[in-house]
Specification:
- By secondary structure, this protein is an alpha+beta fold.
- 23% of the residues lie in helices and 15% in strands.
- It has a two-stranded antiparallel ribbon with strand order 1-6. A two-stranded antiparallel sheet has the order 2-5.
- Strand 3 and strand 4 form a beta hairpin.
- Bound molecules: iron/sulfur cluster (SF4) (3 copies).
Length: 213
Amino acid sequence: MSSPENPKPPLAAGTLAEPTMNPTPSDSTPPVSRRQFLRDGLRAAGVAGLGGVAGLGAARTGAREYYWQIDPDKCVRCGRCATECVLQQSAVKCVHAYAICGYCELCTGYFNPEPNALNTGAENQLCPTSAIRRTFIEDPYYEYTIDEQLCIGCGKCVEGCSRFGNGSLYLQVRHDRCLNCNECAIARVCAGDAFRRVPVDQPYLLRTAPPAH
Ligand code: SF4
Ligand code: SF4
Ligand code: SF4
């Protein structure tokens, strides 16, 4: 199973983390204890989830040695992941690299470009299915989590996060859903040529650092 590495060195207790790269109204970052809690605990939760479904997928497909996966650095958010999968609801979902998220109050992956207010009103959200949950952590930080039952893999949040944020939201083929078609219908039309085969024991191409814009 893939395992992301922490892209930043540990910080001494009582010091402040380095400035966030996000377009948050505040340039400050949470105290290290809070940030490390978020980084370690939430990242572990996210990766554990990916690892769990990887195991299920590998067991189900038996002799298959490779899975389809998206290289997040090549994805251009064309929207075809939502519409071209052979499944009624795409096997592609948004995942979140918590370790590089800025926990921004003004998350450009969550809010549409001109929100009426920074709250969870449906009219303020970019996601067409309200699949992103926004949770207050401590002033001015918010956590964003994806409800995969609702996510259709449209990539709108990924576009917002990639253009103006850290790129912590990105798309991956979830192997608890994917049929591992011989020829992936999305890969055939992918505008970024981002699909490739990966070994079943390394089924996710996890983002561990902000991409170069
Ligand atoms: S905006 Fe699209 S890709 Fe992002 S969480 Fe919502 S449905 Fe999923
Ligand atoms: S391999 Fe098949 S099921 Fe999996 S993402 Fe591609 S089209 Fe969908
Ligand atoms: S089809 Fe390719 S470029 Fe388009 S959203 Fe999916 S992975 Fe990204």
